[in-house]
């Protein structure tokens, strides 16, 4: 702790020195009347040489602005010029939001010549408040990974990006076949990954080609999103249609044999720019570093936007994903020791099959009534299915340290989710000192999850001398393991007011009331059970701008997760409840080009079901778990062209109450007490090599419990990565080397018989052309 406070003190002194340099900053976003980001808009200060252009999110930043009153001008061919009076004070940032109407008389299109996909640091987000707001003003810990950062890292899977988020450790979801993480000690499941604000429940890896940015909000998200995991939520924002025309074609390949061509197209169908499109498409095929685990993926994601007027607009998006990849549960541990085998060693069979499909459709209708009120109506439909026929490990042969029993499993499951959100926004003042950004909303969701699987014993396998396909697969001996369907309905009502008092004190007040109902139809037992839960989840947050770029904040929020099942007396379980206490500081360094955040958190999860000591066949809700820790993040442009993401987290997560006294004090599976990461790149800003860059970083994790009882540990590790890249108006290329020192490490584990080795040294390269 002494080291942490020393670092905090040094940073605050630096911030104070920066604050005294006498410059300010203007940042903001330019959107259409329906709040759609506008790219390539010229933003300047009238009568000066200061200016910039908006990025793909419509965001801009003008730095090193002398204190004075200015007229900010936003214009571009195809749009009406808008002017706004702004005042800039030393050491502060002025935030400006502009609505830019299209011009029917101007038929020329905007040419975006920059090769950069937006700013490395994204100062504005919407996940934490349901409305766009500067992250530095929100009294909660939020981290954003921009598209530019994703491109530099050559992110193909979501986990490649999440390595650079504080408090996040990797997981092995559903046998290594979907995105699962641990945030602040708690495992995320399909309830806590969102896409454009809608729950995105799938059992395959989410595609990254159409991701614009990723926002990670720490702590329970129930106040706005209903059911959520205690540690936090991940919200993916997808790429949107553009008014300017472009085509980007690229090919990515790696040293494991994967090849991945992709296209990204955008533009307008008509001369008035009111009908726009975006299309992302990917084909991926090749091997992985794991034996018998190859991949083939087809992904197509079209998006359309139509502006009915300067106040009403509709965006429709769809995703089509087919992904063939067999599940893979990794290797195993015996007597607390992980088997010493190559990272490629598989315990499956060469003919294992995994077929995944995902279909998504969303629409977002927005209408602005006037300068105060606007309305959003949006819906989401998601369908996913999975078919897998696999031989996989079951248990270690008693008395052996090398042999494992395997089973044949034939499984099919599919899931349908529908949700609609209706939200009324209001921006208004009460008196001279109070500025309000309020939202009132209602969400209705309906989902169905259906699964059946059959199993049969197969053989034993020696992991040090594996003999695959030793005998025919016993399909004639498969027996039904389970077959059931869950029908779930959710109705939520929520309200929030984000209040700014004298521009220095920010107060965030909100609450949501949810009604959750589920029907379970078990075809194996011919039984039907129903359950109903209600929950009221509030949030209170306060942030105060102490001086210049330094703010301090605190918040408390509550979350919930329904718990299925019954007690011995036949009573249904109450929801599992999570309480977050968080406090910290946010500092904008170098005129807000670099953001520093530090947070202390304490999450208590209560009503956790544990074994009934009077009857081990039933559970009672007296369990409690707690996660406490500290996180620090530094993100931004330290010098022109020099970008950095640096994180450190300390997480102490363990059981605090249980009927089994031996479990009290047990650390959470997969959670490192200490973890850190660094990603930094430098890009030349002028000369013949302008656009050439290089960099790298590391991700480091301490040792972690390998299972729920902490019976063995995954060793700590530090993995180093490096990159070299180049980009201009037409060409972009990059080469990334991952696991530079070729260390042996483990991504995570579900149990002693499901441990996933990390990838060895490999190279990934991308080359693309823009038209």
UniProtKB/TrEMBL annotation:
Domain spans labelled TonB-dependent receptor plug: 135-232
Molecular function terms from GO: siderophore uptake transmembrane transporter activity; signaling receptor activity
Name of the protein described by the UniProt record: TonB-dependent receptor
Signal peptide (UniProt feature, chain positions): none
Main location: membrane
Membrane topology per record: Multi-pass membrane protein
Protein location: Cell outer membrane
Family listed: Belongs to the TonB-dependent receptor family.
Species annotation: Pontibacter diazotrophicus
UniProt KW keywords: Cell outer membrane, Ion transport, Iron, Iron transport, Membrane, Receptor, Signal, TonB box, Transmembrane, Transmembrane beta strand, Transport
